[in-house]
Each structure stands twice: as C-alpha cells, then as structure tokens.
Amino acid sequence: MTSQRMTLPALILKLSILIGFILLATWGVHMIRDGLDLQIRPDNEQQVHKAIMIGAVAYVGLLAIPFVPGAEIGIALLAGFGPAIAPLIYVCTIAAMMLAFMIGRFLPTSALERFLRVMRLRRAADLVARAAPLSKDERVAMLLQGQSKPVLHLALRYRYVAMAVAVNMPGNSVIGGGGGIMIIAGLSGIFTPISTFLTVILAVSPVPLAVIFLGLQF
Amino acid sequence: MPQVFQVAAIAAATLGTGAATLSVMNEDIPDLVVPDGNWVATGALDGVTFRIYGEDLSSGAELEDDIIFRDGTFLSTDCENSCNFGWSDYQTMEIDGVIHFTSTAICPDAPHTVVWYGRVTDDDVEIDLTWTTRRWYWTNQIPIRSTGAAIQSEVGSG
Questions:
Q1: Predicted-complex ipTM score
Q2: Sequential DSSP letters for A27-90
Q3: Full-model pTM
Q4: Which of B3, B10, B52, B79 is the best residue to mutate to test the A interface, defined by the most A CB atoms within 10 Å of its own CB?
Q5: Residues of chain B neighbouring A42 (CB-CB closer than 8 A)
Q6: How far is residue B93 from each of residues A108, A169, B121, measured CA to CA in Å?
Q7: Where would you tag: which of A75, A148, B138, B150 has the fewest CB atoms within 10 A of its CB?
C-alpha cells in the first residue's frame, strides 16, 4: 500500500469544501425548519409531545440497526425544535449505541444474523455473518476498514479511542454506521461494558454539547 | 456475573446517566414574575367575564379567549379546551383605581402551569401570562400578551 501525502493547497481546498458544505447544510436545515413552521402552542403541545416521544423511540431503534439511517431523525428533531431538544437527542444516542453494543455482546451471532435476515436487513445480516468467523482482533479491524497496518496496531492498543473515532468518522455508514460499529464492538468481546459506556458518553457528545453550550442555531 | 445481570446493569447505568444528564442540562424557565404587593382573595372581579384577544409572543399566533371570574375563582375557556385546568383561585390588589389580579392555574392531566397577571381599568383589561410546560426532557414556555373588555356573561355557571 502506498501512502499519499496531501499537499497544502489540496488540504485547504478540502477544508473549504467541507466548510461550504456545513454552511449550505445549515442554511438548508434552517429553510426546512421555517417551512415546517413547527410552533408549540397551548392547543398542540400534547401532540408535539407525542411526536417527540415517537421520534425518540424510533431514533433509538433505528440508530442501533446497522445500515439503517437513524441519525437523520435526530437531525430532524434538532432542526425542528432547536437546542432545547439536544439533551434528549444526546441521551437517546447513548441509549442507541449501548443497545447495539449489548445486542452484539450478548446475542449469539447466529441468532442475531437470523433475526436480521427475518427483518429483511440483508446488509446488516451480511455484516454479522462476515464478523462471525473472525478473531477478536480481526473484528476490531473491521471497524477501521481500509486503514494501514500501523494504524490498526495502534487502534487495537487504544481500542476505545478507535471506537470513538469510528463512531464519529464521516462516512462510517459504509461499515454499518454507529449501530453497526457498536454491534461489531460487542461481538468482538474485547470491549468491557463500563469502559464502552464511558467512551460512548464522550464520543457522541460533540454535536449536542456544541448545540447546547455554543448556542448553535439551526 | 450472569448475562442477564450484566444487561440489567448496563441498562440501569444508561437510564441513570440519561436521567442525570437531562436533569443537569434541562434548564428551567421561571414562570411569569408577578409584582409583589398586598395580594388578597377579595373576589373583587366576581361576576365579570372578559373577552380577550392576545398574541403568542414567541410564534406570533393570535388567540381569542373568554376569562370568567366567579366565587373567588377564575377560569379561561381557551385553557380549558387545551387542558382541563378547572377553576383556580385568584387574588387582587387595587392601586389608583386599577384592579390588579393574579392567578396560577395548574393542569391536573399534563405538566402545564399558567400564571396570569392582569390589570383591570373600568371595563378594559390588559393581561400578561406565561404557559410553561415542564416535561422530563425539556421546559417550554409560551409568553402571551392580551387585551380585552368585559362582556355579558353567557356561560353563567361556567
């Protein structure tokens, strides 16, 4: 494998594109929020509450399933209700990650694969089937697909850091998204529940904390 | 440790941390602050009904409501439609011919608290109120400002 060094202009260009994308996405979300005209009034507060509860349960469930887009529900709730809903999204994200981890850790691989196939979640079932015959270390390597050997060695040594990085890495949907990563982490058997829990608490905190403390508005 | 206990421990830790996180991050919004004074339950407005027109100051939505005073208690028909608040005690104080009143209505079916503060001059009324909902995951407040005038009561016994 050859390593490619990025030149400074290329790096600046990539950063500029990223910032441009974030600005465009923020503007888009703002437009959607205005379009939805989500206002909480005395006469609709109960309905809004029910919608938030249904959205939160769906968010936890979908985010825990590999390759199923769940994060969008969280983003939609943040877009609709602003920073006030960020603590709920944060807690739900932790719950979803731990749910996926527990599924991977405690459910037999064959049962999990069968369940996913019954649910017609073929890609998720394939992911579990791919992980089943691998060793613990090889399963962790799955989390960092495409990385060089030194990076993998480093990741195995600092596996909780690697987990946090993988969960936050843009484009991690290729390897199953947050839910897929946590299921594989659970399957690997080398992550202890308490350390995983503490890692997840920190790993999923940047966005909600930024929304709460920096007052980022959608 | 048996697996079932491990699962229960992780679930309990997740729920506990979630509850703690929400209680720390969920910022309370205080109810409308009513000016201090010699507030007394005089029933000074008993028998009066006001039709008021207000504005939700956060959304700009317009509201219409009838508020009824009877037997030392107060009821908003619009609030009654949204949540079954029932009749709430009210207090008054008079300053320079203006009757100030306040009432706090609490919905028994949902975590809504509505604090009313109004000023009655002859047949006219000006009202400030906050509708505060304290859910376990957030606190939402709707501030409303209304004005209106006394009408002939059609509700009678409410």
A1: 0.78
A2: HHHHHHHHHHT----TTTHHHHHHHHHHHHHHHHHHHTSTT---HHHHHHHHHHHGGGGHHHHH
A3: 0.75
A4: B10
A5: 78-79, 82-83, 112, 131, 142
A6: 71, 62, 13
A7: A148
